[in-house]
Design goal:
Blueprint: H1 2-8, E1 13-24, E2 27-34, E3 40-41, E4 44-46, H2 53-65, E5 69-81, E6 87-97, E7 114-119, H3 120-126, H4 130-138
Parallel strand pairs: 1-6
Antiparallel strand pairs: 1-2, 1-4, 2-3, 2-7, 5-6
Length: about 140
């Protein structure tokens, strides 16, 4: 994780998130979230001061989906300019829900106005950003 700490110093904003998957009736499904600004993405959010990035990823996924997850392998990072022009780094992990019911409930419906379990093909169709679609492909 020392590489991650170094990379964070280059970013103006650091976020963390997860590609949350489950097997449902023999089909791999993942969670996608819709934000009121109109985009479909994977669950993620800003890392708080003095928070470890992997803990932030788990917290943000829980807040945006209601799922308590197990952290899997580190999937990589994405870089982009956010809506305010700041350089943003997002660190991603594979995750699986601990609860077999896998019911979805965001903490704040003003931030997430729709979310759902979808198969890989539907995720690739819905996701707004190419970088999110690239992460989904790594989970096939």
């Amino acid at each position: 994780m020392s590489d991650i700490a170094h990379q964070r110093s280059d970013a103006e904003v650091t976020a963390a998130g997860g590609v949350v998957t489950r097997s449902h009736a023999g089909v791999v499904q993942m969670v996608v979230v819709h934000r009121p600004m109109g985009d479909w993405s994977l669950p993620k959010g800003k890392v708080e001061r003095s928070e470890e990035v992997d803990s932030a990823a788990l917290r943000e996924v829980r807040e945006e989906t209601g799922l308590v997850c197990r952290l899997g392998e580190f999937l990589g990072e994405t870089w982009y300019r956010d809506g305010r022009g700041r350089l943003k780094l997002v660190l991603w992990w594979a995750m699986t829900p601990l609860d077999s019911s896998s019911a979805l409930r965001p903490d704040n419906p003003d931030e997430i106005d729709d979310l759902r379990w979808v198969d890989v093909a539907e995720a690739l169709r819905l996701l707004t950003y190419e970088s999110d679609r690239d992460l989904v492909v790594t989970q096939i």
